[in-house]
Amino acid sequence: MLIISIKLAFYTERWGLAMRRKQQAARGQVGESGSIFASRARPVYFNALARRRYRGLTSALTVASFLAMAGSGALADEATAQGKPVAQPPNEQLIEKLDRMEARIRALESELHRKGETAESKKQTARTAASRGNPAKAPAGAKDTAPGFPGDNETAALEPPPPPNNDLFGVAPSPLPGLKIDAYGELRFGAQQNPAANGQWQTGFDAARVVLLPTYQFNDNIVFNSEIEFEHAGAGFDADDKLHGTAEIEQAYVDFRISPYINFRAPGIDLVPIDWLNLYHEPTNFYSVMRPELDNGLIPTTWKAPAASIWGQIVEGLNYEFQISQALEDFGGDFGLRTAANTVPPFPLGYAPGIDGVTALGFAQAPLGDFRQLSNYLGYTLRLSYMPSFLPGFDGGSTVYFTPSTTPRGAYAQINGALRGRSSLTIFETDFRYHVPDTGLEFRGEFADVIVGNPANLRANNDGDPTNNVGKSLFGASGEVAYHIPFGPVLGSKWEAVPFYRYTSQNFQTGGFAGTDLNFPTGSGRMQFHDVGVAIYPTPELVLKLNYTKALNAAPGGAQSDSVLGGVGFFF
Amino acid sequence: MDGWIHWSAPAAAIAIALPAYAYQYSTVGTAQQQAFPGARFEEIQPQGVWKALAGDRLIGYFFVDHVIGKHLYIDYSVALGADGGVRRVEILTYRESYGFEVANAGWLAQFAGKTSGSALEINSDIRNISGATLSSRHVTEGVKRILAYYATHLR
């Protein structure tokens, strides 16, 4: 536009000159060459604008050209606003850039000035605080100025200090931003009756588990969670190491956080969302040394499976998770006994049941590795967990689990090798915890019912063993009362003691029997447990436990598995 | 073959209709307005501390801070009245897969009225959440730290 304006001004000049020439021609002042400069009579000054007659007109044209220049700027803006590309003249671009830089410098200056002021005022405040002798209510990160110490008052920060970067086991910063590793573990020791030794009391120790929890945040919406677990001090092959435990990946999944109402957990190893204790199984979450009995067999904590799920909030205080997982397998034998065809060992070799009337579901989890699952069946779980606002201190959950069949490929009856068909499994479970507000009193309860679709097809009812049969139903219930007593400070932190008592009743052999076995249950499938003890928390991340368990069942001679155990558990 | 369209169409409709704000329960601006409706905010500390003003009168302070849940940060805000008591605690962003019950309004309402002299201890004057023990403990500690900071620097 500037070019146009310059051209306009130029042509205005030319036009003025042309008019001048015309005028002179009219007066006869133009020479033979026709040039206005070659007048002999009167020198003509090349200043068309000075000529009075055309001055007004040329002035008007010049003004118009300047207006055009100004208007071009406005027009350019309008055109840009309309989204049309406008070629700005270089001068204007430079001027604009300079204006922007000036504005930025002004902004930075004022920010610097402000920061200088606040630094001054914070020094003032720190000095006043020190002189007033303020007691240690300072934020964590401000250093105390004791007399004689070169106190660092200036670093008594104005902003709330950021939480320490404790990404690695909660004690050291992480080498890779976004990666955090937590840990938990349980160590147990004490004296137990050994039922296999006729109830003899034997002392012992178990490094039950040490678990690492690497978490990685890909971005704010995608998170990787995992648990790497070493049970019974790990696994090894050298005879002098005496290791017959487990090293396993207990969880490994990626969460896509879409909204508070729906999130997607990609297929991976995940906990089946049944039973609060299965989901929150860290040792600081329960008070007895061993995990609650109901959560050992009836719900085979830690029950993890290849799974994918969607989860989120329905309304405030009500959350859901719907999971599809690999179904439980009615095969309880060693992994190495599976055939290459992914079936149970062929008849007549025999195999151990996964679901039975003594251990319930304890041996029924599907394997997590190498595509060696024994069926194509899937399990479907829906859990609702609630924290109602009308009952503060209460939270609970209820779950339904269903799988069309637990029968593995090639399942047969031991008596004749006849193939067994499908048997569905349905589990109803509900649990709650209620901490009465403003008191130390806490109640916990749980109920689980496992319903077998077709007991005649379960291995336990067809393996030739008459004592481990399963009826149509396995169920259990437990109730617990605890009291939180704060004390201390001791050794630099506030402690809490939680004495507790829990009663558990289970029946794994009820609801009628069907199958090829003879049926002579010993009564060991009907059991009760009394747990009493105390859990002491030096910090919320560490627990010291002492716990006496009395086990009763309907078998002759009783359960013969009482115990007095101590435990150390940590979760950080 | 055409049957799958019947199922995927409503699913697609739901997916499109859902707001794409992920883990973020609230923004700083929304939380500020909810705590002090109609107030003007003056930043004392960039991204951290604001004064809430009605005209020229100081009506409170607004803090934004973060604490660790189990592994990942929880962004939260604390609004204090001019008397130094907590008016409102808000969870702005919760990133983890478990423990988001700390964002429940009923649980956060416990902090209303707390001052720098309050105990602010889990299982004492603040209820625990059994499935979110670490998150609830750390948020409580964060509010306590902010009240302590207020007592030493702003009062």
> Percent of residues of chain A in helical segments?
10-25%
What is the β-strand count of chain B? 5
Overall SS class of chain A: alpha+beta
Unreliable spans of chain B: none
Strand line-up in the sheet with most strands of chain A: 1-2-3-4-5-6-7-8-9-10-11-12-14-15-16-17
Q: Strands across the major sheet of chain B, in which order?
A: 1-2-3-4-5
Shape of chain B: globular
Largest sheet of chain A: 16 strands, antiparallel, barrel
Strand content of chain B: 25-35%
Description:
The complex is a heterodimer of chains A (572) and B (155). Chain A is an alpha+beta fold and 572 residues long. Helix content of chain A is 18%, strand content 36%. Chain A is built from 4 helices and 17 strands. Chain A has helices at residues 2-27, 52-81, 90-132, 276-279, and strands spanning 179-194, 200-219, 222-235, 244-257, 263-271, 304-315, 318-326, 378-386, 394-403, 425-435, 441-452, 473-483, 485-490, 493-510, 526-539, 542-553, 563-571. Chain A has a 16-stranded antiparallel beta barrel. Chain B is an alpha+beta fold and 155 residues long. Helix content of chain B is 31%, strand content 27%. Chain B contains 4 helices and 5 strands. Chain B has helices at 3-17, 28-35, 105-108, 133-153; strands spanning 40-45, 49-54, 57-68, 73-81, 86-94. Chain B has a 5-stranded antiparallel beta sheet. In chain B, a hairpin with a 4-residue loop joins strand 3 and strand 4. Chain B is globular and about 70 Å long. The model of chain B has no long low-confidence stretch (mean pLDDT 85). The chains are: A alpha+beta (572), B alpha+beta (155).
Keywords summarizing the entry:
A: 572 residues; 16-stranded antiparallel barrel; 36% strand; extended; B: 155 residues; 27% strand; globular
Annotate the secondary structure layout.
The complex is a heterodimer of chains A (572) and B (155).
Chain A (H helix, E strand, L loop, with lengths): L1 H26 L24 H30 L8 H43 L46 E16 L5 E20 L2 E14 L8 E14 L5 E9 L4 H4 L24 E12 L2 E9 L51 E9 L7 E10 L21 E11 L5 E12 L20 E11 L1 E6 L2 E18 L15 E14 L2 E12 L9 E9 L1
Antiparallel strand pairs in A: 1-2, 1-17, 2-3, 3-4, 4-5, 5-6, 6-7, 7-8, 8-9, 9-10, 10-11, 11-12, 12-14, 13-14, 14-15, 15-16, 16-17
Chain B lengths: L2 H15 L10 H8 L4 E6 L3 E6 L2 E12 L4 E9 L4 E9 L10 H4 L24 H21 L2
Antiparallel strand pairs in B: 1-2, 2-3, 3-4, 4-5
